[in-house]
Amino acid sequence: MPIPMSRRRFLNLAGTATVGNLFSRTAGAHAEVPAADALKTAKDLATAINGFAIDLHRQLAKAEKEALFFSPFSINTALSMTAAGAKGTTHEEMQKVLHLPAEPNEGFGALLKHLNGSGSDKKRGYELTVANALWAQKGFPWRKEFMSLTQKFYGTGIVETDFGKPEIARGIINNWV
User: What percent of the chain has pLDDT over 90?
Assistant: First the structure.
């Protein structure tokens, strides 16, 4: 007989098991994170994503009367990239809302590399590509260290766009997506 399980407990266990399993199989493949640290990073990241997912679902479900579908991983990844460029109180608040561990970027980098796999990885049995981009106002003086960090760990840099021409910017972004 199946054991009853709440949605919250299921999401927490499933996310932790999935991310932990992903990192345990690939820990040696990522030079930036030693094997022992990779598993801890994976668990911390899984806990963060699950905590954020539960909080976000709770908030969205209050207003939604129909079926609700969203990707907490995608939202958390996008906001974590943004948090990587924040400082002070803004950074602290973003880390709290996203439930981020102190240094989430290497964990995200390893997880995104694993999820995207390689073109020659035939064992996977599925095809999945996770893509991220930061769309930013053209001409803004972005810090080089932030641009390097997002490229290294999230596989994206800043895509400069002229938001002064919103219809053109919208078209460019929609075509990218």
Answer: 42
- Chain centroid offset of residue 148 CA: 17
Q: What is the DSSP letter of 137?
A: E
Q: Which residue has the tokens 């880390």?
A: 95
CA separation (Å) from 131 to 17, 46, 151?
23, 19, 12
Cα gap 106→119, rounded to integer Å: 22
User: pTM here?
Assistant: 0.71
Q: Residue 140 in contact with residue 162, Cβ under 8 Å?
A: no
What is the token pair recorded at 88? 């002070």
> What DSSP state is assigned to residue 23?
H
**Average pLDDT over the chain, rounded to an integer:** 79
Query: What three-state secondary structure class fits 136?
Result: strand
* Residue in this structure with the two tokens 């009367």, named with its chain if needed: 65
